[in-house]
Amino acid sequence: MKEYMASPDAPDNKRDVVRNWAITGIFWILALGTLSLAQGVFVPIISAFVLALTFSPVRRALGRIGIPAGAAAGIIMVSLLVVFGVLFYFISEALQQYMSDAPTFAAEVRRELSGLFGTIEPVLKAGDQIDALTSQGKQQTVAIREPGFVSVMTQATPAVVSQLIVTLTLSFFLIASGDMFYEKLVQVMPKLKDKRRALAAARTIENQLSTYLFTITAINAVLGMIIGSVMWAIGMPNPLLFGLGAFLLNYIPYIGSIGGITVSLVTGLVTFDNTLQALLPALLYWLINTIEGQFLTPVLVGRRLKLNAVVVFISFALWAWVWSFMGMLLSTPILLMAKVVSDNVNGLESFGKFLGDRDDLSGSDSRLMKFVFRQKDTPLSEEG
Asked: What span, in angstroms and rounded, lies between the C-alpha atoms of 86 and 101?
């Protein structure tokens, strides 16, 4: 009779697997915690690298007509500052008009809300009466005021400005350095095969990042002009603000369009008395965003990136948690870089496939999928 004995090394192997998984989990927890705590350091650095890689093709194009890398970097930075300045000017003008209408707008919102929630007014009054009775005999009341929007923005402005200065300065030096990054890659790689693979990965990241960001910017500009024109045509207040908001919010996956639709809905309910007319701005905003998100962007961007939509959403949620607003903006570029690196590093190809979009299965994999799902919950062990 044949005896089956467990290998004496089996418990050790299990302990090694558990230990490896534990070390990996601890590493990622510490890494994410460090990234979150040191947001002020990492966000400008990552943003600068993204900008430098995005504008490297522009720097090369300027170099082909005889402009040195340093001068090209200066031209690019000045152009960016001009664009930021123009955007800031128009946004500030639109916001000033909005703030001047804010008291009237707030009064209209309160009126609409009182109409919607008028039925619970007796309950609220009863609650106030109970509070008044329970507070009798107390000699002192402490009121705690939450900081207002203006106060929060005033406190956050210095940090935002300092990070923007660091980002643009580092971007300038990275662009002005020319192809030094590629030269260092060639120097540190030991074998010719590794040099070629590293250069190919870096060039792929550069090309895909620049294509993605320039294409998204063009799409967002067209989207903003269309939404601003539509809001003006249907009589919405501050159509310029809606157009600029659509342009900027569309850089944020998922959340941006939801925010624009919500603002359009609230503004429409306050502005128009007719229900259908009040719902029309949000409906049109949703329709235009749906056409852009389901048809235009997938055709112009999706086929080049080949990223898994579920992984894109997970990346968005993760980086939004780690770096809040800037994490939302950087989530797709970071995921794109991770995908290209995984595709070009030995041992990470499977992870790169997981990050990618659905590919055609091989013949054997296709037959396996059909075999598993061809019958109703039939275990593999019962198949002949």
From this structure: 23
